[in-house]
Amino acid sequence: MAAQSKRKTIANGSDVSVCVIIAAKNAAGTIGAAISSALGESHVTEVVVVDDGSTDGTSDAARAADDGSGRLRIIRFDTNKGPASARNHAISASSATLISILDADDFFIPGRFSRLLANKDWDLAADNIVFVDQQWLGGFNASAIERFSADPRFLDLPTFVEHNISRRNKQRGELGFLKPVIRRDFLDRHGLRYNEKLRLGEDYDLYTRALAVGARFQVINNCGYGAVVRADSLSGRHRTDDLKQLADADKALLESGALSGEGRKAVREHEHHIRGKYHHRQFLDTKSQQGFGAALAYCLKNPSAVAPIAHGVFTDKLDGFLKRDGKKTDTNRTPVALRYLFTGRAEAE
Question: Are residues 105 and 219 in the same domain?
């Protein structure tokens, strides 16, 4: 049966089909494991991989992971267009009722969808994430993952946005890392797709806009998604302009009239946070490329940038001092084999 027409009927008789979309760039070493974890899930009726202008044989590695079930489709872009564009293309190329996001170097924990789809009253549903450091990946065993009680809860917009403001020198744990299953009809009904201007924070932006139009975003404590922590990850090498585009996306949402109250306050705080990081990076770029005088001129032309630039420069200097003095421990600690996005009550035996 063709993948486009497959449907998985679960025990309660409801019609469920999941399309897993994977945007991949130069992921030949990891894409096979990601695809295999998706094809191993019985609820998955489609896996759409978009090779986003790779130069390392990503498409060949993806084809090698095909299980012959007819569920895998590989689309290749000749030039890199970014993860948002790749994901939008995958959504358009698929037909399943549910869309599930999987990064090309991550994986699903076996049985993920049975637990994640147990409850039905949601528009987006996400589960816990286990972060696995790259150096521990070879000896990773899914049985070592702690089992938590599901304890379903719903995220509101202020909570979600506030938990996407990073804290300096702390392990990252923003809720934007969540990789939910999303109902296609909700996306279509509200005209929602990824913002293709973004190469940073595209997940955060989509989820925030979904919450702004009333999405019911369910989260469970059970861990179904494995995220590999790599020192050379693409998300850790964003351009200065990527920060500006993300801040501008927040600004556009603030100006849309869709927000009020605590939600508006949270998005404004996030925009201020990202805009400050942009100004700091722009100051450093200008100083490096054109000299201190040009960097100072940038401050004079952008008075609102002075405070975040001063704060950023001060904390950079402080971090450097502490590192040289041997006092900085947060970012120099030995990697932990397993870390969770959030914890909860251990599941009863």
Answer: yes
pTM metric for this prediction: 0.87
Q: What pLDDT, on a 0 to 100 scale, did the predictor assign at position 13?
A: 39
Question: Cβ–Cβ contacts within 10 Å for residue 299, how many?
Answer: 15
Domain endpoint, select from 237, 271, 293:
237
Residue 332 maps to a domain: no
Q: Is the separation of the CB atoms in 128 and 222 below 8 Å?
A: yes
**Alpha helices (H) along the chain:** 31-39, 58-64, 83-93, 112-116, 157-162, 184-189, 202-212, 240-255, 261-290, 292-301, 306-324
> Do 263 and 231 lie in a common domain?
no
| Separation CA 192–CA 141 (nearest Å) | 37
Q: Are residues 209 and 275 in the same domain?
A: no
Bridge pairing between strands 124-133 and 338-340 = antiparallel
Residue 158 and residue 179: Cα distance in Å, rounded? 19
Residue 44 pLDDT: 97
Pairing of strands 98-101, 18-24: parallel
Span 177-208, pLDDT tens digits: 999 999 999 999 999 999 999 999 999 999 99
Considering the domain architecture, whether residues 224 and 164 belong to the same structural domain is answered as yes
Residues 214 and 285 in one domain: no
Tell me: do 233 and 249 sit in the same domain: no
Say what the pLDDT of residue 92 is: 97
Query: Would you call 250 helix, strand, or coil by DSSP?
Result: helix
Among 98, 126, 106, 82, CA closest to 17? 98
Under 8 Å CB-to-CB from 96, ≥6 apart: which residues?
17, 18, 19, 45, 46, 184
Give residue 63's domain range. Answer: 3-237
Other C-beta atoms lying within 10 Å of the C-beta of residue 165? 13
Higher-scoring residue by pLDDT: 331, 10: 331
Highest mean pLDDT range out of 88-102, 229-243, 289-303? 88-102
Q: Pick from 111, 109, 339: which is nearest to 229 by CA?
A: 339
Of 225, 232, 166, 230, the C-alpha closest to 201 is 166
